[in-house]
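Follow-up to my post from last week.
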Amino acid sequence: MSKTILVTPGDGVGPEVMAQAIRVIDWLKAHRGLDVTLETALVGGAAMDAEGAAISRETVARAKAADAVLFGSVGGPKWEKLGFDNRPEIAILTLRKELGLFANLRPAMVYDPLVDASTLKPEVVRGLDIMIVRESTGGIYFGEPRGVEILPNGVKRGVNTEVYDTIEIERVALVAFELAQKRDHRVTSVEKANVMESGLLWRETVTALASDYPDIALSHMYADNCAMQLARNPRQFDVIVTGNLFGDILSDLASMLTGSLGMLPSATLGAPDASGKRPSLYEPIHGSAPDIAGQGIANPIAQILSLAMLLRYSLNLEADAKRVEDAVVKALTDGARTRDLGGTLSTAQMGDAIIAALG
Ligand code: IPM
Ligand code: MG
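User reply:
Got it. Predicted complex:
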């Protein structure tokens, strides 16, 4: 049966890089029998302009009904002056929350042809292959109480609350353990158990769960030390599992080990329902990049690799996922480079190179 993908290009470079991912989908339909139906919807600033909200109720409903969401990016200077409750970013936060997308998978890989693109020495990053599993529906980004209050003495106070319960910790740790079983069997759990009770609960809960996974080597690290270790010797890591805030920060750091933010995809997964269908969303981690939007120069690789993750995790098409990933590596090996990688190719030319490499 045909699977439905809801495509949400969003703002900034989102529509430009998404156009290349759609070309890859069209190639797979024509040559590999991929059976998908694409629907599209506005999100972010584009949706605020046209529909009055960063994401409409209807779009949320269509995202829930789809087999997967392929998301571009949201945000831009045009919408920055609107109030805090009126941000394009609400689109992605709403989708994570409403679809229960609690496990955000952020791989950071260094491809051999790009080993010199990193600001770190080649010998430090060569062969790097880390998977960060970031909890994405809880923690301080969603915890209550939150807000800005005015104290009786007139002083303003901003409040956000880090909250995790054992169910939230267990389900994301489970995703990390299962991924590690298909990789190098090592999980590093990251928190601040030395200063935060929620961090201590995180550590205890992950430790207890690890007894069900005797084949996994579990270690624990404080988030500050993890940031330092990622810059010092990133290849020590296989899978990192951490909360929403630390995962947001550490995954940006990890992305730069690879040389360009334009390379990194992500998948965000929820729990499968009774029929086995798992809510899922795939997006590049680079954001809308307003500084280069509209020029046709953005690197489409992160969006195309996000599609590869969709093929793998939502459609169970491992061979096609691998084919797309191999085509990206081949294009890079053959010298295809957009500006962020030190080259001159346009977004569409990089798309051409990848499509030519598909077979
Ligand atoms: C990310 C982004 C988002 C986040 C923003 C856009 C809300 O930074 O996906 O990492 O902080 O989760
Ligand atoms: Mg972020």
